[in-house]
Amino acid sequence: MKHISFSFILILALSVTSWAQTILSGQVTDANDQPLAGVTVLIRGTTTGTVTQADGRFSLSTDKELPFTLSVSFIGYRREEVVVRGNNFRAIDVKLAEEAITADEVVVSASRVPEDIRKAPVTVEKLGARQFANSPAANPFDALQNVKGVDLLTQSLTFKSVNVRGFGANNNNRFVQLTDGMDNRSPGLGFGFGSVAGISDLDIESIELIPGASSALYGPDALQGLMLTSSKNPFTYQGLSAQMKVGLNNVGKSNFGPKGYIDMAVRYAKQVGTRFAYKVNFQRVSGTDFIADDYDDRSTSARTGFFSTDAGQGGVATGIAYVPNNNPNTNFEYDGVNIYGDDINNAGAFRFPANYGNAALQGKLVTRTGYTELDLLGNYGRVYNNRANISLHYKVGRNMEASVGWYYGNGNFIRTAGFREYFPDYRRHQFKAELRGDNFFLRAYTTQQRAEGWNIGQTARIINTIWKPISQWADEFGQAYVENKVSIQEARAVADRGRYLPGSSDFRFVRDGITSVYNNERIALLNTTGTRFRDNSQLFHYEGMYNFSQLLNGVVDVIAGSSLRRFLLESGGTAFPRRPDGSEYTINEFGAYVQASKEVGFGTGPDRLTIKPTVAVRYDKNQYLQGGFTPRASAVVSAGVHNVRASWQSAFRNPAPGQLFAISPTGQAGEVGGLPQAYNGAGLNTNPGYLQVEVTPYQSTTGAAVPQPFIIDPTQFTTEKIKTWEVGYKTLISNRFYVDAFYFSSRYSDFIAAQNVFQLLTPGADVSALLTPTNYRTLQVNFNNRNEIFVRGAGIGLEYGLGRGYTLSGNYAYQTGLITLRDARGAIRNDRAGVPVVKRKMSNPEVSQLGRNFFISPENRYNISLANPRLTDRLGATLTYRWTDRTWVEQGTTAGDVWLPSWSSVDAQVSYRVPAFKSVVKLGGTNIFNQYYAQGYGLARIGGLYYLSITFDELMR
């Protein structure tokens, strides 16, 4: 904090004591001379602005010298630019014409400077007040699910992950989320928290999203894209705003739903004098989460005989042969997707010896009885989230604004990585100081996190083991089971006698004892280690940018900037290893960039031709990894309303802290980082593991090849890289028909895709020990493979004004992932039929048979919406249909490998404005027909979410 306090002192030292003020006033009306309330009036190029009152009038003071331009905008109306001169600043009359389609949005994310979205050099999407108002989604963040090419994975009611352009991840660390310029990611866990710790809904002004490589301006980790969420400036948006929302979910679930939820938010902003303004925000959401209750038998490549194979082709996979048996009473190997402790690859199964006394069980794999997620959480699915913010803004000089802010997030949620993990009380503080002018900014911020959670699957396994070791359980099962006389169900019942029942005092005592103790501490009473981990890591970030264009007199537009960040990892050895002296690791990163552009015009009039080439390059260095340059070249050609863009970009990603340092406590399954500190810390240098894809055939097929140890050189661990080229087209024809289309092609190298590795618990044991699951643990080991990965895709968004306020819009996105497999020496690998694997789909069975690649992306998806924000002067409505293709999923240690079926959702909203009270009442719902679907394997299945809200905006202004 003292770094930021010092920065703010420097900012205030630059203050200019006084300047002349000009007071503007005027009125905004529609084409029928009716006053319009709530219209945003902004001095172009500044944050100085206001909104109109009930009579359409506004008043605004500024020190800016006349003349200048006002930007006047309102939902459902065409933006107007009004020049203010000395003869009209006291009586500015503006008429707005209704316009269903607004395409003249200004974005800053594409080039770090304001520009027309139609002339942005890369694909960029923007959600603002119009999109938020029309969306049936329950909050602004959820409105992203209607953006073309975006996969919004719901992990928890309050926690959703944004994915674009393949490699869908529940905790996506290839996509950067910025909140008012601050990285939204957890400093240690390495993934963006979205709205868990973001801005209050009432304070969100806009969300900009760039799909695709963005490292040239935003540094490493923006490998697949960037999202910039901007809050409302208190100089522009003032007064009291409040929202109350009530709703229902979990409808139609027997013995559980429906469940209610409440979402309350308040915002107050005020300008004091001519220089100072402040704002205060608070939001609380509480309800019942969507429940992970898929109890079908788990589909995973760890199953014996999982793939169907062609024996005449060397055993090459032709599809999935495993047929789930969802009845634990008739299935020896039942392993429920959202049941834990019964996992076939997490010490929840026992394989009887080939010479076992009961011939009916010889060589049989039997899973023990597990616990559901609700059993283990013991909280009935309750979820909550608090967000708060206080910001102080001060105008320094004529064209500068200084601000300091505190951003707070707190709540509980579940995330899915290799396992499901529960965070009962997450807390995060961010503090920011910023000085911003017309042509520069300086920013310093810190993220302070308190995150403690526990592994749901490991907890279930240890509860079972404390009650009865699996060998004893299996022995009792084996003695009870008599083929054709005693059923599997009856044998399980015998072996389960005395089991800790969910909710019982014994169960709670053991569960609470395990989950309250860290995973590197021993519990003497229970003779085990705990399952709790913590990540109280911190981030300190400093950056600045300067626009040299004015100094260069318009010859060329040049911006340059740099950043410095420092991570302080703090897990107490529960998530990351310590240094040999016992201290925690730190990570230092540095980056700098420069961008040059020039627009050249030919001809005059509405069909004037302009060409704007742009070149940017950035260098970044992580102290543990080799640095690298990420150049970008682009050009936009505009002729009248037609805009064609083309770009070539490169990017790279520094592995997340967990991918660098993560360790797995002795004897437990989990993730292992790629650096020597983690690899050696897990004992893989002296006790190497075996790839699951090689062990599974050995376990199931007599005469199969004996697996060889999986050995890598962790000193060669490096950054993940991508190169992308893209073309696109944007146009707005006759202010009625809007088109935005793109095509891209990407190539990845040094890709980091953790593979499941079985490590024997007894170092030096014979490889035959792999035939018994209790002899090994499953690790997800991070390393750079030599594969070449190609991702190609296209998308198009269309919007058409039907007249009388109606718009019909839709978008479609396609993408596919191809791979060329290479071994450690770079030679192309063959499939099991001996055919080289060159540019084949990663979802093809003969490819996934050789290892997981985690592309996880639907090939096709589309949205269609019919909207009218002004059915009457007060009533608006939207109807949306969303469809997503089936998806091949390869996920986690205890999730699995499966084709998720396609799904669709119908969303709708009706809103009613009450101008006298500056309020809007909205009735809406997503998935209104309540057709449950899953966006990821093992995630909660999503049903209908229905809500009623009332929002009061800018009262007491």
TrEMBL record:
TonB-dependent receptor plug domain segment(s): 117-225
GO annotations of cellular component type: cell outer membrane
Signal peptide: 1-20
GO biological process assignments: siderophore transmembrane transport
Residues annotated as domain TonB-dependent receptor-like beta-barrel: 397-928
DNA-binding as UniProt keyword: no
Compartments reported by the entry: Cell outer membrane
Similarity comment: family membership: Belongs to the TonB-dependent receptor family.
The protein, known as: TonB-dependent receptor
Organism from which the protein derives: Spirosoma sordidisoli
